[in-house]
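Sequence, please.
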C-alpha cells in the first residue's frame, strides 16, 4: 500500500488520505527523494525495488529530486483537512513542497514618470486641504 501511495504522490504531486497513513507515507516518500538525490545506479535500483513503476522512478530521478538538490529534508507537507464524511476518520492532504527559486530582480520601467506623478498628487491634495481649511471657520 505504501508503494502505491508513494507512486501516486510522485505522479500527481499531492494526494488525500487519512492522517496516520499520510504521516507514515511522509517517511517513505522522503527516503525515496533522498535516493533520487543520490542519483547513482544502486539508489535507482533500491527505488525501483520499492516502487515497482519505472515511469515514476524515472520522474523521481529526473524531475523531482533535482528540485530539492539544495534542501536537506522536508520534501513533503501534511495538511489536515478535517474528518471524512462517512466515518469521521481524520483526513489529510500530503503534497510535495514546491521549491521556490529566488525571483529575478526586475528593473523599474519609468521611475521618472512615477516620481513626477507622485510629486504632483500631494500638491493637489495640499491645495484641496488648504481650500477646505479656508472655507471652514476655526473653532479654536
Amino acid at each position: 500500500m505504501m508503494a502505491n501511495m508513494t507512486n501516486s504522490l510522485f505522479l500527481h504531486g499531492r494526494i488525500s488520505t487519512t492522517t496516520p497513513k499520510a504521516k507514515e507515507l511522509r517517511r517513505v516518500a522522503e527516503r525515496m527523494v533522498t535516493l533520487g538525490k543520490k542519483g547513482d545506479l544502486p539508489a535507482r535500483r533500491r527505488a525501483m525495488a520499492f516502487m515497482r513503476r519505472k515511469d515514476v522512478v524515472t520522474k523521481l530521478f529526473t524531475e523531482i529530486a533535482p528540485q530539492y538538490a539544495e534542501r536537506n529534508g522536508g520534501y513533503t507537507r501534511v495538511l489536515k483537512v478535517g474528518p471524512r464524511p462517512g466515518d469521521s476518520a481524520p483526513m489529510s492532504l500530503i503534497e510535495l513542497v514546491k521549491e521556490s527559486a529566488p525571483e529575478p530582480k526586475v528593473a523599474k520601467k519609468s521611475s521618472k514618470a512615477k516620481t513626477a506623478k507622485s510629486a504632483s498628487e500631494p500638491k493637489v491634495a495640499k491645495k484641496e486641504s488648504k481650500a477646505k481649511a479656508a472655507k471652514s471657520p476655526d473653532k479654536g
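The longest strand covers residues 76-83.
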